[in-house]
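Chain X:
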Amino acid sequence: MAEAGRPGHGPLAGVRVVELAGIGPGPFAAMLLADLGADVVRVDRPGGPGLAINPEYDITNRNKRSVIVDLKAEDGPSHVLDLVERADVLVEGYRPGVAERLGVGPEACHARNPALVYGRMTGWGQEGPLARRAGHDIAYIALTGTLGMIGAPGEPPAVPANLVGDYAGGSLYLVVGVLAALHHARATGTGQVVDAAIVDGTAHLSAMIHGMLAAGGWQDRRGANLLDGGCPYYGTYETADGQYMAVGALEQQFYDEFVTLLGIGELTGAHKDLARWEELRQEVAARFRTRTRDEWTAVFEDSDACVAPVLSLREAPTHPHLAARGTFVDHGGITQPAPAPRFSLTHTAVRKGPAQPGADTADVARDWRLPHLMKDGD
């Protein structure tokens, strides 16, 4: 358990996490655990992880502490295992078999700490024909059918950054798995391995749509369904100034308010007739092009029409609602999303900026009672 006051507050205060440095979904998952109050010690390798970003701006390393250990050195694995012995969770994102070759795989870690939750973050998973293949978010979501359902018909699928695969299908499922396994470990004293594969998590995200597909309520093609842009009252429309408004007026009462405020009340019943969807889409598009995004925002501001302006990354933090909630915070000169979700008692916060490689070795050595860790940190 962490000493009182170290490293901070949150529902996971007292939970110790060892993160073997990597890029992408593993660090994001560890950041989420750190945001929730866990004492996350990131084990950085000499020379860094190879990510082309200044460590001072790598927000996924906020609220963490960093030590440097050369796992390829003779005493490198023993330093990590010493940390593991005092930890509750380990997170790694290597290809299958790499951690074992480095001497810090599940068997070696559980020999030192049988209650350890060993979280493994990969794209393809620990088993299967593609398990040892390289990959990135776009390939993972492509195979699950998720990428193929996003975008306009007749055009290439739209790439949703790396949010759907890496972070939603990967990081969040790893965190859910780790917390569930941690609950089990604390009840039984027995740890286990969590195999979080992006392909599994991303496929799981589409559960509702697979049900709709089986029931005949979803067509297996882009831009032909209620939630994929095929529906004229669930999508985005360009405004007079080249910006966009998002419309999600699905329910009858919301749709009625939407067409009334848009000025096409005569088309109140058109949404129920699929044969009139294209007519409705053209009318909606034509109306939105008559005013600017800000003007339409004002029109729909106090309504339940489910219409919102499409904001850019730099615009979003200044929106009145997000500003009032503190959805974004400024820390160390960087505007960034605040920790989520929120808790009524165990409040979370951005306690410190991105951990700089090796900068916290002395503190970790003291707090985790590992004085010899300083050897690699000097």
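Chain Y:
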Amino acid sequence: MLQPGSTGPDVQTLQTQLKELGYYNGAVNGQFTEPTKIAVSQFQTAQGLLADGIVGSTTWKKLQAAIAAKQPIITAPVPTSKPRVEPQPSKKNLIWWSVLGLGTLGNLVAVIYCLKWLHQVKKMQQSQAANSEIKTEADRNISIPQLPESTNNPVSASNSPSATTSTPKLLPAETTSRLAKFSLVDELMNDLYSADPAKRHKAIWDLGQQGDSRAIEPLVDLIIDADSQQHSLILSALGEIAIRTFKPINRALAISMQNQNPQVRQNAIRDLTRVYDMMSQITPILRHALEDADPEVQSTARYALNQLNRIRVLSEQESLPEQREKDG
């Protein structure tokens, strides 16, 4: 008989068997304490015995039978362990796997792109090599017939199968691949001496639109023997060329005045002013035109002089402070 207060290996066996059947959760220490008594009472209740907490022969037989069958009959509530919770994937692991998947996908895309790029480069190299071979073959095919050998030499005539047979000679690639340079201004200046008046008029007009200073001298030479219509057209072209020439001169002066070197600024003022000094030589010619027999010519000359005087007055108003004090 085992009851509260009993100790020893029998109590230890009792605790072990009750633990196997799920009634006892305490320590297996061989001491019949209150937790052991509660476990025995629960087992007795489940077996329909008197729940006095004392292990007698009947209780012991029932316990051994339950252990042998390993089918505990539990009707009374017994303490159970906490339900096992299946581990759920954490949010951190989900993010890590997502990043890993994106990285793998990115590497795959990069590899595919590199393969396509290498394929395109290889294809371009093959195309360039094919074009180079075609060009080389075309250069080799370009040839000129060689002049027939002279029949005055009897030795060469006797050695050759035919005196008139010529051997083709290939020209170097540099000679055949380059095109002659074309200058529109040069072609227009050549048209100034054409026998066709319409062609000359067109050349004069186009040279004025080109604004190339190389055409000034040929136009001045042509004005001597030109008719009235052509004369006016030449003057119009010269005026257009002059305007287009003075624009870069003004720009060059403005850029030079911004140079950090004072010597450059001084040279710009001195050199470019000489160009404008030449324009002042037109004044005597305009004064002579005031005595022209045609009234309209006189009126035009008077207008031109007024314009020059207006420019001169503006220049005097913008003179240096020392000059204004001296004049005062």
